[in-house]
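Lab notebook: predicted structure, single chain.

Context: the supervisor wants predicted structures on file for every construct in the current expression panel, including those that have not yet been purified. This is the next one on the list. No modifications to the sequence; it matches the entry in the shared construct table.
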Amino acid sequence: MGQENQQTDHTSSAKIWTRDFILICFANFFVFLGFQMTLPTIPLFVEHLGGNDQMIGFVVGAFTFSALILRPFAGQFLETKGRRFVFLTGLVIFVFSVGSFGFATGFVFLFLIRFIQGAGWGFSTTASGTIATDLIPPARRGEGMGYYGLSGNLALAAGPSLGLILAGFIPFKTLFLICSGLGLAALLLASTIRYKRVEKNARTTALKWDFYEKSAMQPAILMFFITVTFGGIAAFLPLYTAQKNIGGIELYFLIYALALMLTRAFAGQIYDKKGHRAVIIPGTFLILLAMVLLAWLPNQISLFAAAILYGLGFGTIQPGLQAWAMEKAPKNRRGMANATFFSFFDLGIGVGSLLFGQIAHNFGYSSIYWTSAGSVLCCMLFYFFLLSKEAGKGHAV
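Prediction complete. Output recorded below exactly as produced.
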């Protein structure tokens, strides 16, 4: 694909919407669209193959734990092999793995392919977030990450609903091939981006087993407690609403994504101007309310209200936490900081999926969302602990 372009660092300019930033946003949109279309349909496919709630948890968990394991390597390769190598490699793996889903006739093969897909997802998303960070001016990082996140949110607005609709009309094999084709579109766009040259130094080359960035740990742990809740929504909410005879699950994902996009337009700017307190405290409260509503879930109105609250809360928190994780990292450690952040992101989804598969099997679907509410409370408590700890030192977190 050629060597990385030796252009000057885009972050020296105050301009966000450069050619390459637009390309990374479009590439991110297509790979996320392919991924989001599989998110609610994989559990249906597992049911189609004869699996139960526990098997759904294991299949979803295989993907997320694979991404978790591979992200530190992706972060290391971003600093040693370069952005292009990691991003394109991840997209190639994603394309072939998703295209193979429809050929699975048993759980062993499906489990293996999901594990491989997680590797491609871990490489591609760690790289794309790092590439976006390279292209955004430091003084506008929260705002820029918010705009970048919109590309994924637009995919989220269309992907789950589109996947569920298509699953009712076409075979799963055709659906997964379409998703693979969207990943291919992302690959073609990614091949035209002019990537930032990696700044190698002694630390980059010497610490070959350095698989996390310490400066990113606090926001990464907070993100873990939040994404635990996502495991219960992505894997089990379609089954939960079907059990309660509540329609509109396709609209849930659309409403959630629209609320997410609404907050992306301003949450990053609030973070840049006022810091993370202004986004984390209200965001976690909104997600807590959403989990309580889902645990109760008396009717369709409560389902849609939960979608709005969850979208507003998640859209407020995620860009702020990601910007926080990146801003304190040295320039040559951005890739590892992004890998650290998304490793905990994946870990939350994986833990949630596996845990909630067992909870659903033994206690019912509503227990998933009460447990999720407890995870959000843990996020709040840990954040207030960090604030009190740093207040005692006389400076902000």
